[in-house]
Structure formats: structure tokens, C-alpha cells
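Two entries, shown back to back:
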Amino acid sequence: MSARVTAAVAVRVLTQLRHDHRTMAMLLLLPALLVSLLWWMFEDVDTGAFDRVGPALLAIFPFTVMFLVTSVTTLRERTSGTLERLLVLPTARLDLLGGYAAAFGLVAVVQSLVTVLVSTTLLGLEITGPVAMLVLVAVVDGLLGTALGLFVSAFARSEFQAVQFMPAVVIPQLLLCGLFVPRDALPPVLETVSDVLPLSYAVDAMLTLSTSTGTGEVWRDLAVVAGFVAGALVLGAATLRRRTA
């Protein structure tokens, strides 16, 4: 893997995103808008509900948005022949995916900053732990969505098929991550499944930060999520095809 080639791929992706204003707006603003919508829903009904579910959504929304945009964008690059042209050059597959991950990772940093600052300042979300850790968890979770999006895009032949992976990859994690039912209250089989899903650990980290100043458990959860990110990138590099038949 070459750092120079990876950086060149990242710059190319960022340049493309800079000219795609709708995608950039979706990446940077949509999670904050969704969190704001949820706050508005609960404002006059249950003022404590937003503080209960808000931290979990700070993990879920970046993950979901980055997964969707990354999987569709990567597939579009392959169907247009761009990936095939890049791989003709001295570019390893891991260089390519690393560049995409770096580019979308930078976007995830800005996205997370916007979402967390809107939630904790304008919307009054109460967080006990350090806000910087909250941003870090959101960034790593955005990287998780990016890595999984890069991985599953290898198995889709059209943008419609890429979107179809969302119910298979994202929704089960959303249902079992502890947002609706605490993970330790799930039936034993579902709790076991939840234990092997990466989003569960991101949500656990957010919930810990919402109620505690300790960061030991948060770092452990982040390490698990980071391991899934690395694994998804390696698997994505192994299954990446030059183009869609």
C-alpha cells in the first residue's frame, strides 16, 4: 500500500465531491437535520425523550448516510469505467479503497462536528462525557458506514441494487443496537447477534458518554468499531472488481 497513491486517490475523490453540491449537502447537513427533526417531534410531547435517544442517533445517522452515499458513489465509479482506468495504473486495490476511506473520512469529520455541535448547543442535548470524544465516536462510526459501503458495493450491479443492501446491512443493526430495547434485555439469540454487529458498540459508546465522564469503556468500544472498519476495507479490497459486467 502506497501512501502517495492513497493520498492522490483521496484528493481526486474530494475534488469530485466538491463539485457535487447535492451530495455534499446530504453528507454534511442531513444528519444534523434529522436529529433536529427528532428534537422537534419530542419537544412538546416528552422533553426527556430526546436526551434518551439523541446520543444513539448521533451514531446511527452518520453511519447510515455514509453507507448509502459511499456504496452508490463507488458503484457509479465502477460502472463508468473509472475504477478500471485507475487499476490499470500502478494502483493497488487497497490504495484505492484507502483513498476513498480517507476522503470520506475527512467528510465524516466535518459531518460529525456539525451534527454534534448542533445537538449539544442549539438542541440542548445533555452529554456528561467530553464533547471531543462524542465527535470522535461519530467520526469512527461514519468511517464504519464508509467501509461497509465500499465492501457491499462490490456485490451490486446497479445503483438500485446498492440501495437494496441497506435493509440487509443497516436496518438489522439499527433494530438491535439498543435504540429501541436495551441490548441486555433482548432475547438471548438476538443479544448474541447484537454482540457481533459493529453499530452496537458505537451506540454503546455514545450512551456511555451521555451518562458518564469515564472513557475507558468508550475506548474499548471504539477499538471494536475500528477493527470492523479495517476488516471491511480488507474484504472490500479482496472483492473489488474492475468494472460491472
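entry 2 starts here
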Amino acid sequence: MAQDNFNDLVAFITVAREESFTRAAVKLGVSQSALSQTVRSLEERLGIRLLTRTTRRVSPTPAGERLLHTAGPRFEEIRAELSALSEMRDKPAGTIRITAGEHAAISVLAPALDKFLPDNPDVNVEITVDYGLTDIVAERYDAGVRLGEQVAKDMIALRIGPPMRMAVVGSPSYFRLNPWPEKPQDLTAHNCIQIRMPTYGNIFPWEFEKDGYELKVRVDGQLVFNSLAMRRDAALRGLGLAYMPEDQVQDLIKGNKLIRVLEDWCEPFPGYHLYYPNRRHASPAFALVLEALRFKG
């Protein structure tokens, strides 16, 4: 294929990954009609259909799947190399894209970047809050953040946070009307503020551990959130018990605005790690961000 047709391949790969001409056009900054014509021209030159188009979605044909899986990763390698070359200068520069959960973004990334960014004005950091286990290669992120136990084995992992603990908390007004739970199983009789995460697809069970014994409790309650702030605020208003990262409620516990229960069942577990694919030539900007986020405790 002629060199000037590489843009056609980029267009096809983007549409195939997005499964939508509309989303792909936005990502590439072109009109939907122009993108459709580009992909159609590629199919005509190859003499084979690459995409199946319906009113609801766009999906690769078997030939399209083969092209996507063979050409896609090579374009990612080229993109990474060009990015590294463009940043080979005295002052590191560029945009680093990171996907992370809400708590990791608030408790770990934000404090580190507060110190890092003022001294590195040419480095931009884009953080996307996402509760799912995002495929950072397919979604073109430079790195992602997960708890240490969730990092894929084929990724490089860098510890960026201390060990964590969870806390079960409720307001004084809640406990004036309800008894304190003495063991995790007692939570089934309480109005618990539930958590729904895309990672699991259903209600997140509350996890406990004591003396090596692990226990998951499927709680019930009137409220379901995927937001830290909303769970904390609902607990403060006396609407139920919340299962929260300890650091997000410590001050409220000290101020007697929230009461902590089952503390002896909430043991520490591995904290957050930044993970990223192996790169032979990491950009200077990415290397600086890694060092800024590295846990030094």
C-alpha cells in the first residue's frame, strides 16, 4: 500500500475500536461523512469489506478483525516512538494521560501533582476518573492506577501510595436508632449505603479480614452510589452506614461527626500502584511524572 494511504488505516483502526463513525470522527477531528468515505475508499482499494454497518453499531468483519489486530499495535508503537522523539529536548514536555479511580485521583495523584506541576510548566497531565479496569493500551493512556492486587501481570507496576484501610462509619443520629454491629454479619440488619462499580457490574460486597480470615458481606440499603462524596455525605445525614477509605473519614471521626465500627475487621491491604506497558524509550516527561508519583514512605 502506498505511504500516503496510512491515514486510511488510522481511520479504519479508530472506527473499529470505537465501533462508531460518530465517536471516531470526534476523536480524529474530521466530519463523519469524510471519515466514512475514507474507510470506504480503503475497502475498495483492498477489494474486501472491513466493517459491518448497522443502524446501531459498527463492527469489524473477520478481515477487519485481522487487520485491526495486526496493524493496530504497530501504529501504537509508531505513535509512542514519535511522541518520545518529539520530547527529546532540554526541558521535558508533552501530555501524560492517566486513568484512575476517584479515590486514587483525590488522595494520591492530586497531592503529588500539586508539587510537580509548578516546576514543570511544559508537562501536562490529563486524568480521567474511571472505575472500570480500563485497557490503557487500547484507550491510549500512558498509565493507569489500580490497587496493587489488581495490576495485570504483563504490566510494569510502580507503588505510588501507602497501604490502605477501609472504615465502616455512621452518624451519631443513626446509632441513636440502631445498635452497633459487633461483627460483619450484623451489617445485614442495617441500612447500608451501597456501592456499585462498573468493574464488578453489580453491588460491591464489603470486604473484611481479621487474623487471616477473610469475609465478604453483601449488604442491603436504600441508597446506592459510585461516588465517595455522596456516600460520605449520606452517612453524615444519618441515612445509613458507609464503607469508606479510612483517609476520607478520619477527620470526621476525630470530630465526632461520624462513629467508626468494626475497626478490628478492617486490616491494611496493598495500596495504589501506577501501571504501564513496557516501553523501550519512555519520554522524559513520562519519566518525570513516574518519579513524582513514586511512593517514598
